[in-house]
Records
---
Amino acid sequence: MPFASLGDRALVSVSGPDAEHFLQNILTTDLDVLGSSEAKPGALLTPQGKILFDFLISRAGENAFRLECRAETADDFMRRLALYKLRSKVEIAKTDQPVVTILWESDSTASQFESAPFADARFVDAAVKRFYDGAADGGDLAAWQAFRIAHGVAESGSDYQLGDAFPHDVLLDEIGGVGFKKGCYVGQEVVSRMQHRGTARRRVLIVSAEQPLPASGAELTVEGRPVGTLGSTAGSTGLAIARIDRIKAALDAGLPILADDVPVSLAIPSWAKFSFPQEAVGAEEA
C-alpha cells in the first residue's frame, strides 16, 4: 500500500452562500458534476486562455470548497480570487500547514487515516486517493513521482510554468479539468475555440530512454530544432510537453529525438484520446 505525504501543498477555502456560483463563473472546472468524494483538476486562466493557477478542487461541506494548490502559489492565488469577488458572499482563506497525503494502488482506505478519502480524478486509469485531515508519517515521494509520470499526469512547477501553458497542453481537457458544457469562465473563448477546431498541438507525452534522463527543463530537439521541453523525470522515464505534429514528422522520417544528447522515445499516455496528427496542420493557435 504505497503512500506519500506532501509538504509543498496548500489548501485554499472558498465558502459562503455564493461560493459555488462564484467559482463556477471563473474556473475551468464544471462544479455541477463535482461529486462529494472526488478532487477534480482545474485552472484559473488568463483572459488569453493560459493557466495562471492550477489546483485540485473538492467539496468541503455545504457551500464550501477546498482548492489544493502548490504552497508557493497560494497567496497569489487567493489575491487573484479576491479580485473577482466583488459583491459575492464568499470567504476566502488559507489553511496553515496543511497535510496532504496520497495513497495509490489500493482499493481500501487505510486505518491510519482519520479522514475520508477524495478520489484524485486526474488519474483516468488508476485509483489514487487524497487525504486532507489525517496523515501517515513518511511515505515514498520518489515512488509517487514515478507513478505520476508513468500515468502521464503533469503538474505545474515540475512539468510546466504557470502563465506558459494552455489547458490542452497539459491534458486538462482529457482529465475532467475543463467543463465544455458549462457557461462562460475566464479564458473560455480561447479554450473552446481550440477544442472545437482541434488545433491543440502541444501535448503531454511520456518520455523513455535507455539511460538516465537529463534534468527537468532540458530541450527536446530533432536535427537541432526544438520540439518540446522535458518536465518531471524518474530515472530513465519522464514527462514532456511537445509539439505532436513535429514529433510525428520525426517518427515518420526516422529521425532521432534527443533530450540534450540523450536519445529518447515518446508515447501518448495509454488512456488519452488524442493521437498524433496524420498530416501537417496550419499555423498555431494564438
---
Amino acid sequence: MAAVEQFHAHGYAATGVKDITDAAGAPKGSFYNHFVSKEALAVVALERYGSSRRLGSLRDKSVAPLTRLRRHFEFLRDENIGADFNRGCLVGDLAVEVADHSEALRASAHKSFEAWTDALAFAITEAQQAGDVSKTLDASTLARFVLSAWEGTLVSSRTDRSARAFEAFFTVVFGVILR
C-alpha cells in the first residue's frame, strides 16, 4: 500500500495526500472517494503495517517458543538493516509524531501495540510453561518490556546507523531477560 510506504519513509506530517496518490498512481481527486481524511488513511495504513509484522508466527506451536521470539525479532532486525537503518517501526513512529494531536491515530497505535504485546506474551507464556523462561514476572509484563526495549533499539539503530543496538537487544533480551 502506497500510504504505508509514504508514511514509513517520510512520517505523517511530511506526507501529503498528493504524495500518496502519486505513489499509488491514482488521481488526487479519487482519494476522497475512499477516505474522509489523511488521518483515516493513516489508521488503515497502521492496520496494514501491523498485518505485515508476522505476529501470527509468535503463536505457531510447531516451533519452540524462544525460537519463535528470536526469529520474530531477527526478521524485524534484518528488515531494518536492509533499509540501511532508515526505517523504524511505523507504529512507534506515528505514535511519537501524532499521538498527542490525533485521538484516532493514538488509539490505532495503542491497538497495534496491544496486539503485538499479546502475541509476544503468548510465546513467553509457553516458554515459561516449558521451563525456559523464569516465572518471576508475568508474561504480559515481560512482553511489554521487550516491546519497549525493541522500540528503543530501533531509535538507537537509526541514530547510530549501525547494528550495535540490535546486538545489545539480542544479548540482553535473550541472554538475560528471557532465560
